[in-house]
Amino acid sequence: MPPKKQPLHVLIVGAGLGGLSCAIATRLSGHRVTVLEQSPSLGEVGAGIQIPPNSSKILFSWDLGPALSAAAVHPEAFIIRSYRDGSELARQQMRGYVETEYGAPYLHIHRGDFHEVLVEKARELGVEIVLNAKVTAIDFEAPAVTIETGKTFTADLVVAADGLKSRCRELFLGRADPPKDTGDLAYRILVKTEDMKQDPLLRELTEVPYVNYWIGPDQHAVCYLLRSSNLYNIVLLSPDTLPPSTPIAPATPSELHALFSTWDPRLTRLLTLSTAATKWRLQNSTELPSWVHASSRFCLLGDACHATLPYLAQGAAMAVEDGAVLGGLLKGIGRGDGLGEVLRVYEELRKKRTTRVVRGSSELRGVFHMRDGEKQKERDRRLRGGERGNPMPWKEGRVQRWLFGYDAGAEVERAWKEGLEAVYGRREEGGSMSKL
Ligand SMILES: Cc1cc2nc3c(=O)[nH]c(=O)nc-3n(C[C@H](O)[C@H](O)[C@H](O)COP(=O)(O)OP(=O)(O)OC[C@H]3O[C@@H](n4cnc5c(N)ncnc54)[C@H](O)[C@@H]3O)c2cc1C
After folding, report:
1. For helices 340-368 and 315-329, what crossing angle results, to 10°?
2. Structural domains of the chain, with CATH
3. Separation of CA 19 and ligand 1 centre (Å)
4. Is the CB–ligand 1 distance for residue 161 below 6 Å?
């Protein structure tokens, strides 16, 4: 019998949805994990998030199904509506259909609840989370990171999951690399459904958990129920009018009403119920040449390397997939093993897919935001058509299968059988990741 390998110590920068997913998967592969988070407390912004089945499949394999299902709403269907009168242009069944087709549900959840479920799981597994730990410098060879207080942490591998404005990415590149403006911003609003139920025009929107998309010239709106259907999550996507130095700002009700005054009366009425809204500049990334440092002791993950417009609702799902794949690949690796091959495979498995999602989300902007005219009429005709050539990615058969059918566990197993086993030796059977 070969001697048992010593677990790695993996240092993850950032306790967002991506960093925590990576922490869970890496810990489940038997390694010691420390997460460094700059904030003084753990949490997420107060808004909803969609969890597609390619992500829920991973999360459920970590036994998070009961906690997530209890906190989430299962949408019945996606409905794409015309902006003017709300008439239906396309519909895709979700509840029941995605479970049967992809083995996991589509979920709508409050970000705070999602984050809390991941934090609890990470802690239960013994992941150490260090708060007030803003990383300011990295020694890529050691590897080691230094935080603002001057304290240094060493490890066998550093994973940078520090988001869109990643400091670690800039240190890795050795130059400034600010995120790219997309030209759009998002208003995020939460409305109480008990207020909607008082209004005959809005009551219907609270009765069945549809995700409603209204698409129109230069803008679109995405709305769905949250938290036992007690909240209605509204995201309005509009041209970016924020001053260059202001990425986030409060929004006034009159501003929202002015932008959507000619839209479906249900949407305009809905906006009269909003008392507080925040607008966020939407930025994304251009593809990096590589995610892995030449030392083979540092890599990037999540928004830090593939931030996207949220139009496919896949940004966090990509970060969860990254975490599951990286953590899964690390099972069977020990201290003293060179990490070059395993990190090369991680990048190979993840970069192509995430680049396609970033591009696909930007392309969808053009589809959603068409101005009235011949092209828009043709788009609507195709939206009303069947699965083939449908510009709605959740309806187009091939695109849907590519997005929702991704199986992170199978990718990991294949990579080991087809290459990593020859480099690192056979890994032990069993373990939680084998459930993926
Ligand atoms: C309007 C909108 C709607 C969206 N809707 C969806 C959706 O429905 N579905 C979906 O899948 N995705 C969605 N997304 C995308 C999703 O929110 C992101 O892709 C995801 O949250 C990225 O996670 P992350 O962990 O990579 O980064 P982040 O969530 O940004 O986490 C990074 C963490 O690192 C910490 N950090 C940063 N710098 C440092 C440092 N120097 N040292 C230590 N810690 C640091 C931060 O404090 C933070 O906790 C949406 C995005 C937007 C803007």
Report:
1. 170
2. 9-179+286-435 (3.50.50.60)
3. 9
4. yes
